[in-house]
Amino acid sequence: MIGKLNHVAIAVPDLQQGTAIYRDTLGARVSQPQALPEHGVTVVFVELPNTKIELLEALGEKSPIAAFIEKNPAGGIHHVCYEVDDIMAARDRMIANGARVLGDGEPKTGAHGKPVLFLHPKDFCGTLVELEQV
Questions:
Q1: Is 106 a catalytic residue?
Q2: Separation between Cα atoms, residue 65 and residue 60, nearest integer Å
Q3: Which of 57, 83, 130, 132 is labelled catalytic?
Q4: If exposure means fewest CB atoms within 10 Å of the residue's CB, which of 33, 58, 95, 104 is most exposed?
Q5: Structural domains in the chain, sorted by start
Q6: Predicted confidence (pLDDT) per residue in 18-58, tens digit
Q7: Does the CA dihedral 110-13-55-31 come out positive or negative?
Q8: From residue 92, how far is each of 1, 65, 96, 97 by CA, in Å?
């Protein structure tokens, strides 16, 4: 059901510093910052030949990333994102198999302008999973 790995998201305490590490130290191409107030984050994407790294910085005190950074001051892997062909069919399959969909269960528009859902980490080996319709 899941397709390819779309991205690995890393929460960072300082987006400019994180961007500089990937751009200047590792020589990667990095997108411009994009604020996503509906998700409480500002993101950049590090473009790799086979996937992307998404760097996330908290946007406001109520951001879910703010709580993550409070527990992990240096930052760290926040979630993995897998592609799916049909987000609603994927959601229904997850629920039928006992997985918990976070939020109200309805897809939101993600950073790529496509529908996304998040799945509870306790149902996926301790990893927050994002599904993105492609």
A1: no
A2: 9
A3: 130
A4: 104
A5: 5-133 (3.10.180.10)
A6: 999 999 999 999 999 999 998 999 999 999 999 999 999 99
A7: positive
A8: 12, 27, 6, 9
* Side-chain-facing half-sphere of 59: CA atoms under 13 Å: 14
CB distance 42 to 57 below 8 Å: yes
Read off the pLDDT of residues 47-96 as tens digits, 9 standing for 90 and up.
999 999 999 999 988 899 999 999 999 999 999 999 999 999 999 999 99
Mind spelling out the 3-state secondary structure of the chain? CCCCEEEEEEECCCHHHHHHHHHHHCCCEECCCEEECCCCEEEEEEECCCCEEEEEEECCCCCHHHHHHHHCCCCEEEEEEEEECCHHHHHHHHHHCCCCECCCCCCEECCCCCEEEEECHHHCCCCEEEEEEC
What token pair was written down for 94? 């997850």
Predicted confidence band of residue 1 (pLDDT cuts 50, 70, 90): confident
Backbone angles phi, psi at 79, to 5 degrees: -160, 165
Token digits of residue 117: 């859902």
**Beta partners for 84?**
133
